[in-house]
């Protein structure tokens, strides 16, 4: 029982020291600190800041790899979706009546010559001179 009391007292003292250290790191109660304690706190903050910056730099170096992996996964997902849609399209074409099977989907028309004439406002030649 005596050991537990000593352990409890030791833990309570450690908690007090950690609280005091935390207050110093947050800038509270620095007026009572000696110049040596202030220098010690400053060096601790500088070391902590350099560790944080190092971790940030490491995570930034990993970001392009992570981003590439995300895009690769997205491409795989879209290719699988395309495959499923093409299969569904083929299945639906099979269900069409015989007279409608001659219909050519838009996708296969790309790149083929067209016999459709289109009127536009395009004028080839010198622009007209306008006087106001």
Automatic annotation (TrEMBL):
Q: What InterPro entries is this protein classified in?
A: TF_Kbox (IPR002487)
Instruction: Kindly list the GO molecular function terms attached to this UniProt entry.
Output: DNA-binding transcription factor activity
Q: Which domain of life is it from?
A: Eukaryota
A GO cellular-component term linked to this record: nucleus
Domain K-box positions: 1-102
Q: Does the keyword Coiled coil apply?
A: yes
Keyword terms, alphabetized: Coiled coil
Q: Which residues form a coiled coil?
A: 68-95
Q: Does the keyword Signal apply?
A: no
Name this polypeptide is given: K-box domain-containing protein
């Amino acid at each position: 029982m005596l050991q537990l009391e000593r352990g409890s007292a030791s833990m309570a003292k450690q908690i007090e020291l950690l609280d005091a250290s935390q207050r110093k790191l947050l800038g509270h109660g620095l007026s009572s600190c000696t110049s040596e304690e202030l220098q010690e706190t400053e060096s601790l903050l500088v070391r902590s800041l350099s560790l944080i910056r190092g971790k940030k730099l490491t995570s930034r170096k990993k970001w392009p790899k992570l981003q590439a992996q995300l895009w690769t996964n997205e491409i795989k997902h879209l290719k699988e979706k395309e495959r499923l849609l093409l299969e569904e399209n083929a299945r639906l074409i099979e269900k069409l009546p015989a007279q409608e099977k001659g219909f050519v989907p838009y996708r296969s028309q790309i790149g083929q010559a067209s016999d459709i004439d289109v009127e536009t406002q395009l004028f080839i030649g010198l622009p007209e001179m306008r006087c106001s």
